[in-house]
């Protein structure tokens, strides 16, 4: 068990469990699927940039850092059905860092959970896609906005599976700055003491609302802290699909509370976002920034039509 260590073990070539609409990879081997995911990741990042630009507000930095591991979950791990998003046997994705919802909405749109145009509905008065992810949106489990709550909610979902004799999996997505909240550690202790089957992913992009995480309140050693509460811990390059795949091979063979520390870059791969002390945590993209972001993602701004509010 590679607890607390950077995990880059060789991955196997396990069979894909399922296929969701939007990415036709069910017949390919793992290498082929990962190559498709890389292409899709770039498209999802374009969708994020367009969404935030159209709304003239939002949280692009933490959305861009979350793309790879969320793509992996939706295509390789989650048992969810866009035609029946409330199926009681569905897996639960508790997206606690809900301010970074553009990436979540981009994926829910791609996989047909929502039937609205995110560029027209995100952060609009009366729109279908609020500025913090909400269960009013099909495919969203958790009412976000107050950081630190998601892991406790995920614990409850795991306990509910036992009470109801159901066999669904529970995943919680946490921001690293969010782990400065005391409730996270109460939940971590509870999950360890009860041996709950919860998989938490911490997006370790090292930046938060104003400053780098370490300048606000240092959270390391994150791995040792969770291990002390009885968690198994993996650490990966959160932008590398092979590392994510290899980690999940072991995560899926392990019971009890499990933590994946995804080392990411806030605003990745857009240079001017990465360069900001807060990784472009939030804000309204200017026309020039929008065009620069598209160009850095490999898209011609002249071919993109987005109307701002």
From TrEMBL:
<dbReference type="GO" id="GO:0004802">
    <property type="term" value="F:transketolase activity"/>
</dbReference>
<dbReference type="GO" id="GO:0046872">
    <property type="term" value="F:metal ion binding"/>
</dbReference>
<dbReference type="GO" id="GO:0006082">
    <property type="term" value="P:organic acid metabolic process"/>
</dbReference>
<dbReference type="InterPro" id="IPR049557">
    <property type="entry name" value="Transketolase_CS"/>
</dbReference>
<protein>
    <submittedName>
        <fullName>Transketolase protein</fullName>
        <ecNumber>2.2.1.1</ecNumber>
    </submittedName>
</protein>
<dbReference type="GO" id="GO:0044272">
    <property type="term" value="P:sulfur compound biosynthetic process"/>
</dbReference>
<dbReference type="InterPro" id="IPR029061">
    <property type="entry name" value="THDP-binding"/>
</dbReference>
<dbReference type="InterPro" id="IPR005474">
    <property type="entry name" value="Transketolase_N"/>
</dbReference>
<keyword id="KW-0808">Transferase</keyword>
<comment type="similarity">
    <text>Belongs to the transketolase family.</text>
</comment>
<feature type="domain" description="Transketolase N-terminal">
    <location>
        <begin position="40"/>
        <end position="303"/>
    </location>
</feature>
<keyword id="KW-0479">Metal-binding</keyword>
<dbReference type="Pfam" id="PF00456">
    <property type="entry name" value="Transketolase_N"/>
</dbReference>
<keyword id="KW-0786">Thiamine pyrophosphate</keyword>
């Amino acid at each position: 068990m590679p607890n607390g260590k950077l995990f880059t073990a060789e991955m196997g070539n396990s069979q894909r469990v399922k296929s969701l609409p939007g990415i036709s990879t069910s017949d390919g081997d793992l290498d082929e699927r990962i190559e498709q995911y890389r292409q899709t990741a770039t498209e999802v990042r374009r969708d994020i940039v367009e969404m935030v630009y159209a709304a003239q507000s939002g949280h692009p930095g933490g959305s861009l850092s979350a793309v790879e591991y969320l793509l992996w979950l939706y295509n390789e791990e989650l048992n969810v059905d866009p035609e029946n998003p409330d199926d009681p046997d569905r897996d639960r994705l508790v997206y606690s860092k809900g301010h970074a919802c553009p990436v979540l909405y981009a994926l829910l749109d791609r996989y047909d959970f929502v039937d609205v145009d995110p560029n027209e509905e995100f952060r609009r008065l009366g729109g279908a896609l609020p500025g913090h992810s909400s269960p009013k949106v099909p495919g969203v489990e958790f009412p976000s906005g107050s950081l630190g709550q998601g892991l406790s909610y995920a614990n409850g979902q795991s306990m509910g599976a036992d009470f109801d004799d159901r066999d669904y999996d529970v995943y919680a997505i946490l921001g690293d700055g969010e782990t400065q909240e005391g409730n996270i550690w109460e939940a971590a202790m509870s999950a360890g003491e009860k041996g709950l089957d919860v998989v938490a992913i911490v997006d370790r992009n090292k930046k938060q609302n104003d400053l780098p995480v370490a300048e606000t309140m240092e959270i390391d050693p994150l791995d040792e802290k969770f291990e002390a509460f009885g968690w198994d811990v993996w650490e990966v390059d959160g932008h590398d699909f092979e590392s994510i795949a290899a980690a999940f091979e072991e995560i899926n063979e392990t019971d009890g509370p499990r933590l994946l520390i995804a080392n990411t870059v806030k605003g990745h791969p857009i240079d001017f976002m990465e360069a900001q002390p807060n990784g472009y945590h939030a804000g309204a993209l200017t026309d020039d920034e929008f065009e620069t972001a598209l160009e850095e993602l490999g898209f011609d701004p002249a071919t993109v039509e987005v109307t701002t509010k």
